[in-house]
Give the backbone structure.
Amino acid sequence: MKEKVAGVIGAGSFGSAIANLLAENMQVCLYARDSDVREQIRTVREANGFKYHERVTVVDTLQELTERCYIIFPVVPSQFFLSMIRDCAPYLQPDHLIIHATKGLHVDFDLETATPQSINLKDIRTMKHIIRRETGVVRVGCLAGPNLSAELADRQPAATVVASRFDEVISEGQLCLRSNRFQVYGNKDLLGIELAGVLKNYVALAAGALNGLGYGENAKALLITRGMAEMIYIGKKLGADKKAFLGMAGIGDLIATCSSPRSRNFSVGYRLAKGEKLDDIVASLGEVAEGIRTLKIAKLIVDKTNQPAPLLQVLNKVFFEGLDVERAVAYLMRYPVQEDAEYLNL
């Protein structure tokens, strides 16, 4: 058994927050792709507004991280995940545990030119599929929940879910992360938890837009409730069970990201409603808002499967076709819904 050291790949806001949480319980190796960021963390113990725990050690190569760490937490944007895991693959061993925290989807096609007719749903993959396909690691899990990185950095109470079909992955993840301010739940539905963490991102875009228009809590509650219904239907098309969406990684994460200006996706929707251009917003973020990419992928799914998803469809028109946000809201308010919580009958 390798030395009890945890590794984190990715020094963005969430990766940094996870590294600090892990460091409360054990030694941590942190890898950042940018050598300047690595040097800054190493010398001043701070980067991008984050201060690092004394037990966080920066490493310069993925080989060093994989050789020193028995459990690894990749926290990188979905569009970079495949290249990262391929770089890691030569050094990963069957006894490694990997718990990813990437709330996005990978596609094995060109997202910009794809059509519902040209794609196969099997070519839309969560990160667990990428890990299993590209490496020899079997014990895989994911981390998802209401985990706004700024609040974690402020040491505020929070909780998360470690999901895996392996009990050992769940128990090791809990041992590594749990503290008196961070509760860690377990779940065996890895696919469902992954998809819950992914799909809530586009609902958060809508929540930010509502806030930007000045709408209040009634409108937000309506959005969250019907947004979760869409998440469940889309997840079902990809093979997930609805139960994953009704817990901490589903409704819990959805509430947090739809309520906080600290959420990147919320912020994007808010700024768009205030009249900023999407390209300008994205250029100024500094980090990826996964909801924008998720919008495109999820629309392909619902168009391919003929699944009604009015919020998703109208958001795509707002973000990529220039539909006015207030007109989008008016359309959604006229959309006929016959039954409340009908998704519970799935």
In short: The CA atoms of residues 99 and 344 lie 29 Å apart. The radius of gyration is 20 Å.
